[in-house]
Amino acid sequence: MKKKESVPQKIFNIVNICFMLFMIGVTLYPFIYVFFASLSNSMLFIAHQGPLLLPIAPNLAAYEAVLKNKMIFSGYRNTIIILTVSLILNMLLTSFGAYVLSRREIMIKKPLMLYIVFTMFFSGGLIPFYYVVTSLGMYDTLAAVILPGAINTFNLIILRTGFEGIPVSLEEAAKLDGAGDLTILFKIMVPLTLPTIAVVILYYAVATWNAWFNAMIFIRTRSLYPLQLVLREILIGNDTSIMESGADLGDAQAVSETIKYAVIIVSTLPILMIYPFLQK
Q: By residue range, what is the domain housing residue 198?
């Protein structure tokens, strides 16, 4: 028999629901605003004041300008290449490192772990980092974006913790059957820690997709720009002239505003569509 809620419990539930709905609205409204702004008429949007609850004179002019721009497609291509290569490299190296650090028989495991954790809080600085990358011949190549972030210490610790949760008896049984370290890693550790691996993949994918700083420092050839660097150039540099050219969209200054919002939607939509499935 269902227990009847008391008056204080009902009040608490109502207040709690109202608060959560408010937080959902506060969190969701910026996305809604950006989407509605990208669909709005440029001149009317510039003149609009206050909250934007619906698109103003909806049209797809800003999206047409974005999709006509070659930098967007080259940015997508470069970002997908960086994301694919980085994820493969990230997961291989992180899995190898986590496996070694999770072994109980490694004598220098604690000093090695302290040395690795130290890098989370201290670095050599930007100038030594720049000299290392350029001296290795990676300047103005996609390798300068991929290789320096091959292993993330925080993700390494997460995966190491997952591997340490696997019963030792499984590993001992595999060794009795003649299994080596690679067999144990890929046929025992990885299948039994798939949820943890999915989380690590998600962290790496989101970080790689949003990364722009290394590209800004090391990449000078515009055809190698990743998508986020193209987006930064448009949003911060206010450079929408390459998109406005060839598109009959009226006043360039007004158009540039809606183009910015359209670029945000185009660049974030793929990761927003993938994120809920990986989060589950």
A: 70-224
Residue 244 covered by a domain: no
Tens-binned pLDDT, residue by residue, of the chain (280 aa):
556 777 788 888 899 999 999 998 888 888 888 888 888 877 777 777 777 888 888 888 788 877 777 888 888 899 999 999 999 999 999 999 999 888 887 778 888 888 888 888 888 888 889 999 999 999 999 999 999 989 999 999 999 999 988 888 888 888 888 888 888 888 889 889 998 998 899 889 888 988 889 899 999 988 899 988 888 877 765 555 545 444 444 445 555 677 788 888 888 887 777 777 766 6
Token look-up 């190491």 returns 160
Q: Say which CATH number the domain at 213 has.
A: 1.10.3720.10
Residue 210 lies in a domain: yes
**Rounded Cα distance, 163 and 160, in Å:** 5
Cα first-last separation, the chain: 33
Residue with tokens 């000299």: 131
Domains held by the chain: number: 1
Closest CA to 215 of 204, 225, 201: 225
Q: What does pTM read for this prediction?
A: 0.78
Residue 135 lies in a domain: yes
CA nearest neighbour of 265 among 22, 32, 75: 32
In a domain, 109, yes or no: yes
